[in-house]
């Protein structure tokens, strides 16, 4: 007999509901200011540095990913998610302070801290996977990702209102949206702390001891992730880099890791320069906010569909569809660079949909990893790599836009997508044999 990994049904459902609510609030927090970060950096340091705003935010998410995964392994998901949101809240306050005193370096520091909110939202999908059966894991993870839709779509449309709120509070232009961000992220943290619930390490070790005494096989239980239980039963907890080496020795996991990084870097490179590109062409802040809202809608609204696809037709086929969608988005972006108009929102929407298909398929592969000693470290290092790649893409995007325009941004993004496309094709051919 085995001590089962999944928590009681009622507790699992409660946690999934809490993750949905916190992701909704986190989505508002992140998205209400996403359209203005690059503009704030441009105002303080020039167009060449506009991409550094998003780069630092993504870098913050990257730096936070492994420590948050480690904290989740040691203290449970609730502690990791709550700590991440608190750091992001302090980041929003730092950004507002930087705008007040017009300090570009302080702005970048604040944005890096603020980026931790994105790391928390990403970690939530794995937390959801731990509360689902294998047959429904893709759908449950995608449902938590989908919950970000409402907040993320509403957020950019609050940009102008946030700006007006900032003016009424005596804040400089573009700082106001971060007031909304701070409020939403504080609420997300409170939801996690108060309602996530679950068993603690002591209960886990008590269960392990009882199982050992009766000769039962031991699997993870309660709030503790699989790695914690693996350690309790003698399985060695490995480092993040060891987990990454393990992944690159296993083709399916290698595809998931590379696809996550490439899809995210492509999305970030194009998305972060779209507001700057549009403003250079005379579009208002309101129009920019609408386009970013449509892009975010594409990122999250169809995620349950892709979760269903993963559970029904497999992660590899779903990933292949995501790569095709990203390629289509970049071609549309090349057209938008010349023609503008409705081509820009069309390209951004398809870009978001392609990102969604890729991230859900790769995340499900990682959440389904049967090696419990590898699972959490690999999730952490994959999210870190994803965000490091996104940070690099965002940092390069500003100089590329200033040098060659929006069509060169999309061309470079095509090159970034190539490694993932190649690995997906290889896995697709193997799956069809």
Structure keywords:
2 strands, globular, single chain, mainly alpha, disordered N terminus, Growth Hormone, Chain: A, two-stranded parallel sheet, 433 residues
Question: Brief overview, please?
Answer:
With 433 residues, this protein is mainly α. The chain is 82% helix and 1% strand.
Strands, helices and their partners?
Layout lengths: L1 E2 L5 H23 L2 H12 L4 H26 L1 H25 L2 H11 L1 H14 L7 H10 L1 H10 L1 H10 L8 H19 L5 H14 L2 E2 L7 H7 L7 H9 L2 H30 L4 H16 L2 H11 L1 H25 L3 H25 L4 H33 L1 H27 L1
Parallel strand pairs: 1-2
Strands in their spatial order, largest beta sheet: 1-2
Distance between the termini: 36 Å
For the sheet with most strands, the description reads:
2 strands, parallel
Class of secondary structure makeup: mainly alpha
- Give the C-alpha Rg: 21 Å
Helix content: over 70%
Question: For the record, what is the CATH homologous superfamily label?
Answer: MFS general substrate transporter like domains
Notes on the structure:
The protein has helices at 9-31, 34-45, 50-75, 77-101, 104-114, 116-129, 137-146, 148-157, 159-168, 177-195, 201-214, 226-232, 240-248, 251-280, 285-300, 303-313, 315-339, 343-367, 372-404, 406-432, and strands at 2-3, 217-218. With 433 residues, the chain is an all-alpha fold. Helix 7 (137-146) packs antiparallel against helix 16. It has a single domain (2-432), classed as Growth Hormone, Chain: A, CATH 1.20.1250.20. It has 20 helices and two strands. It has a two-stranded parallel sheet with strand order 1-2. The radius of gyration is 21 Å and the shape is globular. The two termini are 36 Å apart. Helix content is 82%, strand content 1%.
